Amino acid sequence: MADIVRITPLKAFSDNYIWVLHDDRAAIVVDPGDAAPVQQFLAQAQLSLHAIWITHHHHDHIGGLPALHAQWPGCPVYGPPAVSGVSVPVMEGSQLPALGLDCQVYEVPGHTANHLAFHCGQHLFCGDTLFAAGCGRVFDGSIESLHASLQRLAALPPQTLCYPAHEYTLANLQFALALEPDNPALQQRWQRDSARREQDLPTLPCLLAEELQHNPFLRCGEAGIRRTARHHQPGGGNDALGVFATLRQWKNDFRVS
């Protein structure tokens, strides 16, 4: 029988989380932008590095790979093809061993053209595609593919736990509240997650069921969100994709208080 798999967030830089799946012996690390917190955690917990999963090529997600490879040269690095440091390219439908669990790879482009997500049981490691109450910016992907990727993730079981790579929740909730200032569910979540951050606790993982209720980027078909988007940018689009594009550009320019 497999050991119980636990998931631990490691802080990196100003707002990154490096997620570690581990049992009592081995660990899988997701998006190690910095090697130091990973090395410290594994040493303290006396764990070996079993594998590394990479969602996309941005430096804050892969910067720790050279140092980790030097310490664990045989450790496989799974990720998108052509990403520096990836030793085992994976793509849509790839199946990965995950400490006795099964993991399926999804292609979820948009933030970048080659972005992946790793779905392991009820756990979804979504990198910079889906955030708590928000979504990633478009860099070398497209707004159309980002919208489609988010719709795909939204169709997963509501009890899915999502593990984004950044602590952006409060900034995203401020934007969501600017769209729906009288939404009591958003107000309650703001109070809950603000209290967690005041204690220096993560607001993540986030429950997909809550995202379906609170995240404006997953609710572009709702009448209230559409009205707000059209008021902000008249003629910006009446379908869900047009509303999504309006919201994403609005969020790009939005300044948190």
How does this structure look, described?
The chain has 257 residues and is α/β, with parallel strands linked by helices. It contains nine helices and 14 strands. The strands form three sheets. Strands 1-2-3-4-5-6 form a six-stranded mixed β-sheet, with helices on one face. It has a six-stranded mixed β-sheet with strand order 7-8-9-10-13-14. β7 and β8 form a beta hairpin. It is globular, with a radius of gyration of 18 Å. It comes from Vogesella fluminis. Belongs to the metallo-beta-lactamase superfamily. Glyoxalase II family. Pathway: Secondary metabolite metabolism; methylglyoxal degradation; (R)-lactate from methylglyoxal: step 2/2.
Tell me the major beta sheet.
6 strands, mixed
Compute the separation of the termini in Å.
Answer: 50 Å
Helix-strand makeup class:
alpha/beta
Q: Any idea what the radius of gyration is? A: 18 Å
Q: List low-confidence stretches.
A: none
User: How much of the residues is beta strand, in percent?
Assistant: 15-25%
In N-to-C order, the SSE pattern is EEEHEHHEEEEEEEEHEHHEHHH
Strand order of the largest sheet: 1-2-3-4-5-6
- Helix share, percent: 25-40%
Task: Give the oligomer, counting copies of the same chain as homo and different chains as hetero.
Answer: single chain
**Would you count the extended β strands for me?**
14
Number of helices: 9
Global outline: globular
Mean pLDDT over the full residue set: 96
